[in-house]
Design a protein that fits this description.
By secondary structure, this protein is of the alpha/beta class. The chain has three domains: about 55 residues; about 160 residues, Chitobiase/beta-hexosaminidase domain 2-like (Chitobiase, domain 2, 2-Layer Sandwich); about 350 residues, Glycosidases (TIM Barrel, Alpha-Beta Barrel). It is about 35% helix and about 20% strand. The protein contains 18 helices and 22 strands. Strands 4-12-8-9-7-5-11-10 form an eight-stranded mixed β-sheet, with helices on both faces. Strands 15-14-13-22-21-20-19-18 form an eight-stranded parallel β-sheet. Strands 1-6 form a two-stranded antiparallel ribbon. Helix 1 runs antiparallel to helix 2, helix 6 runs parallel beside helix 8 and helix 9 crosses helix 11. It starts with a helix and ends in a 6-residue tail after the last helix.
Length: about 650
């Protein structure tokens, strides 16, 4: 029960009167002096207690807001000095402040990726609750955009509720005041299409300011995806103060932002090893937190075909590892829906004509002839880069009928019709030469690509996607590169950045997505999974290497058309449970490279901001790997 000063005075007075009445009944008149002395002592005690209470109340009213806590006292406090957060023993400081709050209120902006336009952030914070945020769509271009905005807003507040649930209640600030309500007003005045497209304008402007006792946020964008990025930035202005046991938000902010590159991707291979749907969903959420916009789902390969297509169910029936390692079309729809609300497109790749296996071995039994050759042939090293081998039959017309059905279903389920990925890497000339010794295998490869493109056009309603990607390969070298149509075909360049053929694609004017193996392959550095040293790449690509890779800045040719880039997580040596730490925070480093493309390398502020972003991911349930020992997070500048 709370005992205020007035209640304390009344209680003491009542107690004194009771004692007086008792003394009158039992003491003679000569004892009145003694009674007077007792009353005088009681009055003195009352006055002293009241004076002490008022003094404490006055001190509480004037001490800093970050200095008052109930419950167990923390060991450490962080003080902002010279734009640096310095750790001190709490017992040695009159100021008690948590590290997250110090990080947000001191030094450089903590946003990730770093905005490309002007930024202004307040150095004061106020308490908020996830349920205190409300959305008002003030301008929209379609009902579909409005629906997506509402869904994206719900995901943002869900992330905040996740933070609130992590409060352990051991340390609570008791004077931070009442939580402020936050009205988020969003205006979209451009595209009526909520999908991430090749021409989507992802820019946004955010303004946060106090209005009376509440806060108002205005987000203005030209697309749903831009507005969603604005919501993501807003969520980064909110953090959990572990000492207060409350969410805090900056009191004011303005951000003007737009990405440098339109394609900012992450590839996940789910064919070498199967990953459950929750891990894929968590990857989508982490991508959105870093403003990546393309989930390149390498769903099939020679090892397995886990995608159960409605149009060709035999592929999963013959190619999946088992009934527990299958993605249904409902699963894909769930991923696509989550990704769309996060401003991400799903680029679903069924690799062909190589990187196919037993999934395509059912043709003769179905009366379709051989759909593929060299399936699991031995010795495998003569026919492919890793076991098992297999590649499609380029002269079987049923292959192209099946591809058309596959492509049509992919386009329908993903809603992505302006961008497609055909695969198209590492064809074995030896395999085709054995079965078609009258034809140059490179000519067969070129003809397969053209026929696959025609199948894609038919699947896409008679119109080729604006950009169809192929992996860089021998087909994308001279003299075959010049025979490809650079107007509709782009190349995902996976070879090393110094390889002449990697630059040749760019010099030839092809639209390109960079995925250089020597910088952005996340599976490198773990040794060979076979009995020899072949078939793996090394060394490990650190987040610093990922961040500092800027191939377009090194003497670019006049014809270069770099759409962006993607990190690639191949999974020969990776399975469920290990994905988060392998991908994050390295893919976050890629995200800032492709969003902001700042000329500086991994300077000190990048370490600090990436460590803060890593903490955000962990708070959202992503098991991201640490950048350094926890001591460095507590003493960041001591480790730089």
């Amino acid at each position: 029960m709370e005992l205020t000063g007035a209640k304390l005075t009344a209680a003491m007075k009542s107690w004194g009167e009771a004692l007086t009445r008792g003394a009158s009944a039992h003491l003679p008149r000569v004892g009145r002096l003694r009674r007077a002395l007792v009353l005088l002592a009681l009055a003195a005690c009352t006055a002293a207690a009241l004076l002490y209470w008022r003094q404490q109340s006055n001190e509480l009213a004037h001490r800093p807001l970050h200095n008052l806590y109930s419950g167990s006292e923390p060991t450490w406090t962080w003080i902002c000095r010279n734009e640096r957060c310095e750790r001190m023993l709490a017992s040695e400081s009159s100021t008690l402040q948590s590290l997250p709050t110090c990080n947000m209120l001191c030094a450089s902006t903590q946003l990730w990726p770093q905005p490309t336009g002007p930024v202004s952030l307040a150095t004061a914070a106020v308490p908020v609750r996830a349920d205190g945020f409300s959305l008002k769509v003030t301008a929209t271009t379609s009902k579909d955009v409005t629906t997506h905005l509402q869904g994206a807003f719900e995901l943002m507040t869900e992330d905040m509720r996740t933070l609130e649930k992590s409060i352990n209640g051991e340390i609570r600030r008791n004077d931070i005041g009442s939580p402020r309500n936050v009205l988020v007003r969003v205006a979209v005045n451009g595209s009526a299409d909520p999908r991430m497209r090749l021409n989507t304008d992802e820019s946004y402007k955010l303004s946060l300011r106090p209005t009376g006792n509440n806060l108002v946020v205005d987000i203005i964008a030209h697309s749903f995806c831009g507005a969603r990025h604005g919501l993501e930035t807003l969520s980064q202005l909110v953090w959990l103060d572990p000492y207060a046991g409350s969410l805090l938000i900056l009191e004011a902010a303005t951000v003007d932002d737009a990405p440098k590159f339109g394609f900012r991707g992450l590839l996940l291979d789910t064919a070498r090893n199967y990953f459950p749907l929750p891990e894929i969903m968590r990857t989508i959420d982490a991508m959105a937190a870093c403003k990546l916009n393309t989930f390149h789902w390498h769903v099939s390969d020679s090892q397995s075909f886990p995608l159960r297509l409605n149009s060709v169910p035999q592929l999963a029936q013959h190619g999946a590892y088992g009934p527990g390692a299958i993605y249904t079309m409902d699963d894909v729809k769930a991923v696509v829906h989550r990704a769309k609300l996060r401003g991400i497109r799903v680029l679903l790749e069924v690799d062909a004509p190589a990187h196919v296996g037993r999934a395509w071995g059912w043709g003769p039994a179905a009366g379709l002839g051989h759909l593929a050759y060299c399936i699991e042939v031995e010795p495998w090293s003569y026919y492919c880069g890793e076991p098992p081998c297999g590649q499609l039959n380029p002269k079987n017309p049923h292959v192209y009928d099946l591809l058309e059905r596959i492509y049509a279903e992919i386009i329908e389920v993903t809603g992505v019709d302006d961008l497609f990925h055909l695969g198209g890497d590492e064809v074995s000339e030896r395999c085709w030469s054995q079965h078609f010794n009258d034809t140059d295998p490179m000519e067969l490869w070129l003809e397969f690509t053209r026929r696959a493109m025609r199948a894609l056009e038919r699947a896409n309603g008679g119109k080729a996607p604006e950009l169809t990607l192929l992996w860089s390969s021998r087909l994308t070298r001279s003299p075959y590169l010049e025979r490809l149509d650079s107007k509709s075909i782009g190349v995902q360049v996976w070879g090393a950045s110094r390889w002449p053929e990697s630059r040749a694609v760019l010099d030839a004017g092809f639209r390109s997505v960079i995925s250089h193996v020597d910088a952005w392959y996340l599976d490198c550095g773990f040794g060979s999974w076979r009995d020899n040293s072949d078939g793996h790449c090394g060394p490990y690509r650190s987040w610093q290497q990922v961040y500092e890779h800027r191939p377009w800045a090194e003497e670019p040719g006049p014809a270069w058309r770099v759409e962006g880039g993607a990190a690639c997580q191949w999974t020969e040596q990776l399975g469920p449970g290990g994905l988060d730490a392998r991908v994050w925070p390295r893919s976050a480093a890629l995200a800032e490279r492709l969003w902001a493309d700042r000329a500086e390398g991994a300077a000190g502020d990048v370490y600090l901001r990436l460590d803060t972003q890593r903490a955000r991911l962990v708070a959202r349930g992503v098991r991201a790997a640490p950048l350094w020992p926890r001591w460095c997070s507590h003493n960041p500048h001591a480790c730089l």
